[in-house]
């Protein structure tokens, strides 16, 4: 493609994005951009084994998008511990997790993540990362994704903010973008609910049973281009006007 052709294609795409009203894409980090959901699981499993607490894959899945403290409460499942033991356990889990994070490289970005971030920038859509994790900035730096993100909101930002806004609304405010013009990529039930409450369009990544509340569901980001995304959002908008509220679209099965 000649340079002028690619410029006019980009201009057309930008117009398409504008006509759909989408201005920003907000990406969760663990399990969306970064292959770190399995690292959180491995760290919790180690702690649970040491403490003689039951831990299985079903419980691990239920901890996606859940804070460190709430995760431990769910693992303890009613077992009483002192505040200082509770704190020591969350610290120990975090130390295990940080050991894993220190070994991450650019190769640990989930398939399709980097390409989609680059592609969306070409489509005129601003990208941000939004995570409940207090380690998210470190993870993005290790994956060399930070330069592709205009704003990063992590677990510290929402906790320290005086506005009381949740992390998605904080990101929209930082981008000066109407929340209704944001599309959110999330792998957790909790994240999809919060993004919906913020009035954003939601795309679930992974198991549809976990993501039933999302507007659209993809298997993963692999093969999802900016153009494909805009096409599905347009389908969603048209479908909504005809009464359908959701389409499940495993990326592998989509023909562009
Ligand atoms: C979420 C993960 O992104 O961050 C959860 O899905 C994790 O598993 C949560 O508990 C908090 O992460 P951190 O790094 O602050 O303990
Ligand atoms: Mg996640």
Structure description:
The protein is α/β, with parallel strands linked by helices and 256 residues long. It has two domains: 178 residues, Rossmann fold (3-Layer(aba) Sandwich), CATH 3.40.50; 65 residues, Putative phosphatase, domain 2 (DNA polymerase, domain 1, Orthogonal Bundle), CATH 1.10.150. 48% of the residues lie in helices and 11% in strands. The protein is built from eleven helices and seven strands. A seven-stranded parallel sheet has the order 3-2-1-4-5-6-7, with helices on both faces. Strand 2, helix 7 and strand 3 form a beta-alpha-beta unit. Helix 1 packs parallel to helix 11. The longest helix is centred in the middle third of the chain and has 19 residues. It is globular and about 50 Å long. The C terminus is likely disordered. The site of 6-O-phosphono-beta-D-glucopyranose has 19 residues, from helix 2 and helix 4.
The unreliable regions are 241-256
Largest sheet: 7 strands, parallel
- Structural class by helix and strand composition: alpha/beta
Cα-based radius of gyration, to the nearest Å: 19 Å
Helices, by number, come to 11
Percent of residues in beta strands: 5-15%
Q: Going across the biggest sheet, name each strand in turn.
A: 3-2-1-4-5-6-7
Topology-level CATH name of the largest domain:
Rossmann fold
Helix percentage range: 40-55%
Q: What is the highest CATH level, the class of the largest domain?
A: Alpha Beta
Number of domains: 2
User: Based on DSSP secondary structure assignment, what is the total number of beta strands?
Assistant: 7
CATH architecture of the largest domain: 3-Layer(aba) Sandwich
């Amino acid at each position: 493609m000649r340079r002028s052709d690619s410029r006019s294609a980009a201009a057309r795409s930008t117009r398409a994005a504008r006509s759909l009203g989408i201005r920003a894409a907000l990406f969760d980090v663990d399990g969306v951009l970064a292959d770190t959901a399995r690292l959180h699981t491995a760290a919790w499993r180690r702690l649970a084994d040491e403490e003689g607490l039951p831990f299985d894959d079903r419980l691990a899945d239920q901890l996606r998008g859940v804070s460190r403290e709430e995760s431990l409460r769910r693992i303890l499942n009613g077992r009483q511990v002192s505040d200082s033991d509770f704190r020591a356990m969350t610290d120990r889990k975090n130390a295990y997790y940080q050991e894993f994070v220190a070994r991450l490289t650019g190769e640990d970005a989930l398939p399709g993540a980097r390409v989609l971030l680059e592609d969306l920038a070409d489509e005129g859509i601003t990208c941000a990362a939004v995570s409940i994790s207090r380690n998210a900035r470190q993870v993005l730096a290790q994956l060399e994704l930070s330069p592709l993100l205009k704003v990063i909101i992590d677990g510290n930002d929402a906790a320290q903010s005086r506005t009381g806004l949740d992390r998605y609304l904080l990101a929209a405010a930082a981008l000066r973008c109407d929340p209704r013009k944001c599309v959110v990529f999330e792998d957790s039930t909790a994240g999809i609910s919060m993004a919906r409450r913020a009035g954003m369009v939601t795309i679930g990544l992974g198991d549809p049973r976990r993501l039933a509340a999302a507007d659209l569901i993809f298997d993963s980001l692999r093969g999802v281009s900016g153009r494909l995304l805009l096409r599905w959002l347009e389908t969603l908008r048209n479908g909504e006007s005809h009464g359908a509220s959701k389409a499940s679209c495993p990326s592998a099965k989509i023909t562009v």
